[in-house]
Amino acid sequence: MLDLIIRGGRIADGTGNAWFYGDVGVKDGRIAAVGKLEQEAARTVDARGSVVAPGFIDGHCHSDLMIFDHPHSDIKLRQGVTTEVVGNCGLAPAPYVKDRAELLRSYVQPVLGHTSWEWPWETVGQYMEHLAANRPSENVATYVAHGALRIAVTGFDNRPATRGELERMKQILEEGMRAGAIGLSIGLLYAPGSYTSREELAELCSVLPKYDGLLSTHIRGEGNNLIPSVKEVIWIAERAGVPLHISHLKAAGKANWGKVLEAIELIEDARARGMDVTCDVYPYHAGSTTLTTVLPPWTLEGGIEKTLAAFRDPALRRRIREELGEEQTTWDNLVCSTGWHSVIISAVNGERNRDLEGLSIADIAERRGVHPADCMMDLLLEEDGRISIVYFHMSEDDVKQVIGYEKALIASDSLTCETGKPHPRLYGTFPRVFAKYVRDQRVLSLEQAVRKLTSFPAQRFKLGKRGLLVPGYIADIAVFDPDAIRDTATFEEPRQYPEGISRVFVGGVETISGETHTQARVGGLIRASACCRH
């Protein structure tokens, strides 16, 4: 007897092949059979009128700390997500060196959120053990994050690593890979990752082939420097002999709209040479990051305290204001190309400026009667440098172009929920794909969309037997109405759950039933498969 049969649904099995009517049988947490099933089961679910798909995989998000405070993961599970990949963009809470604790905490807080408890780990492996012991409702895999790794070894110094420091970083990376991390993520837009040369990164990545690890990259520039930045990470991966995944591919700033086609051509050229290169995209024309990313890179040297000290120096403040008012050749000045009206405060650190969440820097500057650049610096001073933003700097046509690209999977890039006005992608990414890009605009077929959310990320991130509805695979399953599924989260009111998803199963256990979480916590840590190791 089977434990569960989901009967009569349209089965989109994750392969990208045409959907078909049938039943899905589950036994001991795995798919036991698919087709017209005559067996008996302890429980039967009627899925007529619904699509039955593998549980969705969020292959790029920043839930590293949120998963501890919110282990039920309602926000993601109610979107049909059963697995998340964390440690992205070089941002992670481990490795965690006590004498540089504040450097790391201030570095990650605008993206990963604030925690009121002390982090009980030091190594990446210890972080993973604590995650597993927390018994989350969903599955989680992680990278080793280059930014956290470099802070642990060199702090925020703007210089090349010494030979000894580079060897230490390689040791820490290897420890994380042995513990089951899926690869290395780098964030070249963020200091101290931005202080690292391509040669140093290629040397660090020499650790990865031994573990069949993936290099995931937030590239150095997504605006005027988009094309050189894509070329740079392709060079690093080719030099190190590792597979490459480019995070949230986009062209930022109106002058650069359309360049995603050239970036895609670079990926295709690399693949034609035999390189394994892919990318991901989120289904919105606005991004979300830290307010400090709009600053000239030199201001971030030494950590946030030195940045804030620069704001207090009239001469340095004037220099910052002048540089932000002009196009730059060595770094992407998106404020100049996009405007302060496109920079929206999504989260502040304290209560003093809570009423500013949801407002643009331009609006706040007008309210205060100051120049927008001065307003930005004042706000960072008032909030100890810990401010998150939503940034409207992309073209919808570009977003559609990348969503339709065969080698692009779809992920949320969602930040912590511990914010005032989080980007709506936190609550709406996966239903939005089906509502907007499948049903309304027909950029993707239903089957293509399911593949980009299931088997593609499962294969790319080596998550084991997930992402397909075939016998032997883990029974992570999402059931939804293809005509009703939609996101309801907006930029104005982002904390709204989607509609049209009726059931979500994790390991064969029903975890979401309608709008209710069953309190099941049968997810856990996914370690990179030992069978993938050389």
Explain the overall architecture:
It is a single chain. α7 packs parallel to α8 (about 225-240) and α13 crosses α14 (about 370-380). The strands form four sheets. Strands 1, 2, 3, 4, 5, 18, 19, 20 and 21 form a nine-stranded mixed sheet that branches. It is built from 18 helices and 22 strands. The protein is globular, with a radius of gyration of 22 Å. Helix content is about 30%, strand content about 20%.
Q: By helix and strand content, what is the structural category?
A: alpha/beta
Classify the beta-strand content into a percent band: 15-25%
- Give the overall average pLDDT: 95
Largest sheet: 9 strands, mixed
Q: Give the termini separation.
A: 39 Å
Q: Return residue spans where pLDDT drops below 50 for at least 5 consecutive residues.
A: 530-534
Secondary-structure topology with pairs:
Layout: E1 4-11, E2 20-27, E3 30-35, E4 44-46, E5 51-54, E6 56-58, H1 66-69, H2 74-77, E7 81-86, H3 101-112, H4 124-133, E8 139-142, E9 144-145, H5 146-154, H6 163-179, E10 183-187, H7 198-204, E11 214-218, H8 226-240, E12 244-246, H9 260-272, E13 277-281, E14 286-290, H10 304-311, H11 314-324, H12 334-338, E15 343-347, H13 361-368, H14 372-382, E16 388-392, H15 396-403, E17 408-410, H16 425-440, H17 446-453, H18 455-460, E18 477-480, E19 501-506, E20 509-513, E21 516-517, E22 524-525
Parallel strand pairs: 1-4, 1-5, 6-7, 7-8, 8-22, 9-10, 10-11, 11-12, 12-13, 13-17
Antiparallel strand pairs: 1-2, 2-3, 5-18, 14-16, 15-16, 18-19, 19-20, 20-21
Helix pairs in contact: 5-6, 7-8, 8-9, 13-14
